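G., before I forget:
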Amino acid sequence: MKKFFYSQKIAPYVFVLPFVLTVLLFWIAPISNGVLLSFQDVLKDQWVGTKNYTRLLSDKIFLKAILNSLKYMIGTLVLLIPFPMLFASLLNSKLMVKANFFKSVYFLPALTSVVVVGTIFRLMFGEASASFANQVMEALGQSPIKWLKGVGTSYIILLLIACWRWTGVNILYFLAGLQSIPTELYEAASIDGASKWQQFKNISMPLVKPTTVYVLTISIYAGLSMFLESYMIFKGNNSPNNIGLTIVGYLYRQGIEKRAMGYACAVGIVLLLSVMIVNLVQLKLTGTFDKEEK
Amino acid sequence: MNSVKKKNKSATVAMVVLFTCLAILIIMPIYVLFIASFKPGGDLLQYGLNLELNLDRWSLDNYRLLFFGKHDYWTWFMNSIGLTVITVIATLLVSAFVGYGFAAYEFKGRNFLFVIVLIILSIPLEVVMLPLYKQMSVWHMMDSYGAIVLPFMAHASTIFFFRQYLLGIPKSLLEAGRIDGATEYGIFFRLIMPIMKPAFAAMAILNGMNAWNNYLWPLLVVRSADKYTLTIGLNTLINPYGDNYSLLIVGSFFSIIPIFVLFICFQKYFIEGMTAGAVKG
Amino acid sequence: MKKKVLATLLSVAMAATLLVGCGSSSDTASESGEAATESAGPGAAGTTEMEVEGDDVTTLNVWTFIELHQQFYTDMAEKWNAENPDKKVKLVLSNMAYDDMHNKLSLSLESGEGAPDIVDIELGKFPAFMTGEIGLRDLTDVIDPYRENIVQSRLDIYGKDGKEYGLPTHVGATVAFYNTEALEAAGVDYTTIKTWDDFKAAGVKYYEATGKTFACVETTAQWMINLMLAQKGGDYLDADGNLAVNNDTMVEVLQYIKEMQDTGAFATVPGGQPDNEEAYPNYNSGDYAVQIMPFWQTSRFTNYMTDLKGKVAIAAPPVFDTTDGEYQSIGGGGTGTAIIASSPNADLAAEVMAYIKLSETANEEVWNVLGFDPVNTAVWSDTALTENADNQFVQYFVNPPFEALNEIKDNIGTLNFYTDEKAPSINNEFCNVTLNNIFENGMDVKEALDESQATLENEFQ
């Protein structure tokens, strides 16, 4: 027995056993359970067929939650990929001084908890005319704004939080990608008379593609599952006119607040599917699969 | 030649200006929180956070409250430290163990299992949150830190990182260990773990950061007030029925400090840990 | 290197201060000077544990979402221990955020694990715990000894099928709080305000004289709305208990409030209603003059609006018509203290809490300590208590606080929807969507109500 356990054939399975157990107990079991629950009314303890799903289709609040999450995800993609990429290549330039210092400073926000960050931003964008944001408005000659009551303004705040927290991290990702590009390529291009911009466009951008794909994948994941940021700036899961409601927020509302566990699980399954679909489409479009096959 | 140098110099200046502005924007919210920690909590309700200095209203009252007042802040603080340490140690040990298995051996089903690692990397925890919650309460694991730590010990992205790291280790080292009579597990514990120090450091920091800031799952699991973590505790202060903003602000500011200190001491590893997945993935 | 980074960080911070701080500091400095709310912050959040001597002491866990209640419960529990040395209890109280506490409660009732022994449940959330299998202990037996003195309607709102599950704290009669100093300066005499039309006219006069807001229109609560609705004999449901938030009376009430808003004298307030941490400073500074709130708002005045001491009068709220005998007030808000049925100490907990909340001493203390209008209305006319010169609430308000209460005492209404299981969802919809649509986004009243009706119907299908 002991010999069996120590054999080179069995050892690898022992090594990966914790992972296999984790997957079975904490991923596969809950997901299958979630699928089963999504066909039930848990409070009444009865099977309801596809009722939860048909209800989802006609649920305007859920639609709103999906649109909010998508809108947020797209906003973060637009802001958190091109700019960090650009900043990273500038920081990577030989002409830049003290790049390490800036790198560290930009990383600081990632260390703070969303609970703290959300509170800071909520109070900075308070309704009072003396709040930070309204002081800025005043300096610009504008009147105070109810930041957290408008669709547009609250969207801006959520994006600001995302940019604040993740710009530095994404810069680091892209820097790591850029540093793996051989410098000879740039030297050669520069001898050929390519401008800095052309070098960025024709060398940096294509060659950091694996990094871009990685950042894209985690941004989609994070964007679609955003919850806590909204929860913190609206001081709870309720926002005026549901402007801050996200898919996970709706899952939380139905499952925890309204105890409609079955319905909430249906929301969870939809979230799972949408993350997977968006990511598959993304990986297909960026051609990541083709490369793997080679 | 001279003009090129000049041009380069002005480019440098322009970039430094740009990045300094960006740095100021990034620092701003933390700075605003910092100065707010010296203001009376009531001001926050009335004016929100702002850049107002107004030095004659500054006081150390909030800090006095934090250090000498009657509240549960330090219980939360110690809970968070304890939970973070347990999480980091458990996650690192288990994930390294698994990561080594993936990196060092060829075995049937390896690729299949590794694809599962990659899939789990891209599934939001929130998808399984509710059923997992139900399951935990069936297993009577509610209100225990076990429910917070156990499901994530074999942590997909940490496994992935260790596996990538260990791929670079020469197989001859393992063979040498076997010839010396070490068991498969002995090789891992005696030969491999010591050389994984930098990888451990990077992952300790990353997992530590996540554990320290974790909110939603602990909120669902933890019931008793004496088990609250810092993030949960701070959030209880945001309550329309209590006048707790003094503690909230100074406590929020103080909660950033431990992780800042760690960051400043181990910057290199932080950055390594964050970027590990991006390049090799 | 490390030191260098720190030093640079600090200098960047300092530079930022210099750049931005100076420019904007002058204008708000004066404001914060005059409206200084010196709250050193008690910071007693979290857990409070009683100290009880003796061996045979039962520990009871209590969840609250209002910190003020903790002190009250411990004081009363000490009295209980003194009177019942054979049944001593030790309360361990945890205070949590409103939403979190109710969520945690429903989760732990569902899983049968982790629930406390005693819990404060807010009126608006109570019906959510009255569905399916009820996890709370029927309290009818422990209420009986105290029943004769208690306003029955406040027991009914925490009941179902003839059983009572919650111990009320107060009546919560809705009254009007007037900032007399501000009103007098504008030549408005609050004692002449009898009807809503008077109220509106006074508002316009005040607004024209001062340019400041008279009272708020609510977007995150329905204190004034529910009062008006009850006065007009309306409700959120139809006679059969079906969902009907877009009924004519509701439209009429909201339309009336909307017209108030259109005068400019009434406006939304930060936080959306007077009982909100963001709203208090606006009343405290005199930017808003009047509140239509349940009586328990007294405690918010003494705690959070300290600058108004000696300036606020309490009066009976306006009515639509003084001659038609409509309700003069309505019970608003409330906390029903419930006992978890599965608790091993449920019986003792029930007995103790009934004493803590319903005994005569309790009712006196509810007024003395918390400043609420107790459910034992005998206390209301005991002038030794209600006009006690040492009482902080008597000292705070211009007129005797119970004057208005005794005036409306026999004419306090209620709404059927309070006890309906649809109430939590309806409240949620109103406080997040409906009222916001009408008073923030200017949507037509009927249209906004129709939309909410449709949303809610989809939820209850």
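The longest helix of chain A spans residues 151-179. Chain A has one domain: 58-293.

More on Monday.
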